[in-house]
Amino acid sequence: MNPLAGAFSEVMTSSPHDLRVLDRDTDTWQRRPWPEVHGIAERIAAFLLSRDTPGAVGLVGEPTIELIAAIQGSWLAGAGVSILPRPQRGAEPSEWAQATLSRFAGIGVTTVFSYGSILQLLQEADSPLLVCDLGDAARSTTSTHLQYPDDADVAILQGTAGSTGAPRTAVLSPEAVLNNVMAISERLSLNRNDVGCSWLPIYHDMGLAMVMATTMAGGALWLAPTGAFSAAPLRWADWLSESRATLTAGPNFGYSVLGRFANRVSDVDLGALRIAINGGEPVDCAGVARFASAMGKFGFDPGAMSPAYGMAESTCAVTIPAPGEGLRVDTPTGETDRSYALLGTPLSGMEVRIVPSAHDDTGTSGEVEIRGSSMMTSYLGDEPVDARSGGQWFATGDIGYLVDGALVICGRSKELITIAGRNIFPTEIEQVAGEVDGVREGAVVAVGTESGAAQERLLVAAEFVGAEQDTTRSAVIRRIVTVCGVTPADVVLVEPGSLPRTSSGKLRRLEVRRRLEAAR
Known about the structure:
There is one protein chain. By secondary structure, the chain is α/β, with parallel strands linked by helices. Among the domains are: about 1-150, Rossmann fold; about 310-415, Luciferase, domain 3; about 415-520, ANL, C-terminal domain (GMP Synthetase, Chain A, domain 3, 2-Layer Sandwich), CATH 3.30.300. About 30% of the residues lie in helices and about 25% in strands. The protein has 15 helices and 28 strands. The strands form eight sheets. It has a seven-stranded mixed beta sheet with strand order 2-1-10-9-11-12-13, with helices on both faces. Strands 4-3-5-6 form a four-stranded parallel beta sheet, with helices on both faces. Helix 1 runs antiparallel to helix 2 and helix 2 (about 35-50) packs across helix 3 (about 65-75). The radius of gyration is 23 Å and the shape is globular. Keywords: Ligase.
């Protein structure tokens, strides 16, 4: 078998711990020891190898024991994996099914696994792909003489977020995936005593990395569906307490919600948590500090907070602080109104450099470029790019700088707003506006748009959850003027859930700009 499948086989078959997945219908944790999960993976591999359908495997659905096993089962069979989300709120089911299967077909998937109502939707769609019941595959008969392929070119076909453009697919080799998982484990000192707890979607690189890193460590893993978190975000604290988790991960807004509504949390113990990764979106230093302070009464150690940086093109993580460092903040010289989180130093095998950029007017920051052992082979359909150590540098599109080797991210170059010659990153405005009563947490977008004089103007869109729109709009404007020193041309309040997001939950700023410009 290929090195990635072999490494996971060794750990899963010898681990004394288990995988637990929350069943939303019964609100109970379904438990299987890791050796049994590997047994299911072997049956899924046998199912795949018995069919003449070479190609990648597509997975759809919220996590189950069988769905997690199918990842390893695909690798045992020498197949790459692509994981796509279930229908988003408001999507037309049949159109979603057709679009999902078309996307799978376009990236080389030939076999799709799902279950329940999602399986039915996919099977009813018109597609040449083999759409199978995951439960049937998990009950397949295995053979002691089954031969697993010794190598594979692709382990994961990972969709990029597409927050600033059309999503693309990163082709990740088994070696790149294994290198990233091992580097994460090394940086975080993971071992069999660790317990991972996550609600992140496994179709997102950070959610999948949480699954892989905990599994590779041989520890226990508790997975809750993303929908269960969305329905009741404060339950995250309950899950961490019940599992006695030592490792978790989430985007900034998840920590902000817990910190903001900590008075509604009770009877939890977070004393076991030694690593709380914060990634996937810009870090709000004030919000993270509020979370750490509020959760301190439940035993949370501020040193556990771990703001990190990564991207799908590098499998997942690029930089992570060492355990115990906690939130470290840098305030650029002369800028008392701006603070940025230090996101740690590069993982083993990865390199980071800063290239001077026209977007920087201070000479201290530039575009972040990366390369190393975890990098993708290419974007699907493009020529291979050697971005390994000593190879080509990959331009991330992020603007940042280094502080004693630790990375700081200021924002995306494509999203930069220039007002009267001053460069402003959207997160500066969004974090300030998000503190106003009546504005939904983590649901603010700031964009720049050209006026008739070809001078950029600041527009702000925010989801409104208050009672008086005019009062909230005025408060947002005053807050931005006072803290950021710039006056918005307009503040638009919209209904909760109406701002466009990627499948991983990131706000699509450029799509918001297009909508605002069209409405003017």
